[in-house]
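**Protein fold record**
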Amino acid sequence: FFLWILQRLLRLQESRHVEEKAARIKDWVSNKLRDLEEQNEHLREQNQKCETQLELLRSRLTQLSQLNSLQSKSKDRHSTEDSSRGSYEGDRPPSDESPPPDSADRDSQVNQQQTPPPRPISATAACLAAIRRRSGAFDTPEERRQRRKSNLSNGSNS
């Protein structure tokens, strides 16, 4: 009879131990899921920022390509005009000055002066941000929270 009671107590103790272990595992899984959801949200936000930046870069590249195309057409036009003028230079002393611009060139210069200078694009900054995002995947939840707080405080000062 005592043996039976002892076995029953041991089984009860083992079942409590198993239940406690299952509860710890459940808590760990819940915490891990929450951390992964936070990380996923952060990555979605970063992805959206990158897509916006990529769109801006594409737009700027298109603008620069069009500007380059216009400049090369302008250079081609000047070279054909110069060759059609003939080769007589007269008694002019040689100089490094270019001939006076025609009205189309003046318009082009005015437009260029009105256009703000292009913003330099830092590939290094983009690479560093990507590395930070990737390395963040191995951070603890507390490290991620601290980094987010730091990023928010740095972003508001800009």
User: Anything to note?
Assistant: The mean pLDDT is 75. Residues 1-73 form one domain.
